[in-house]
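Quick log. Single chain, no ligands specified.
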Amino acid sequence: MSEEGHPPDPGSGDDDQDQRDFANAAWSIPSSIMSGMIVYGGIGWLLDRWWGTSAMLPIGILVGLALALYLVYHRYGR
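-> predicted structure:
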């Protein structure tokens, strides 16, 4: 009960903000990881096509994964 004798609004409070923060993180983390792998994998694929090699695609994917995990750790891990 609030000070006026009315029950608190279910839409107000820190619980809603916590749920929104969790939902934002739940969508942001996997999308950051996938986009890092896709972007750097694409760069590796382009380099493979340009140089005539076949090793840059997996290297690009791993570099993108590592950078994305660092970004996630830096943003949410502290």
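The chain has a mean pLDDT of 86.
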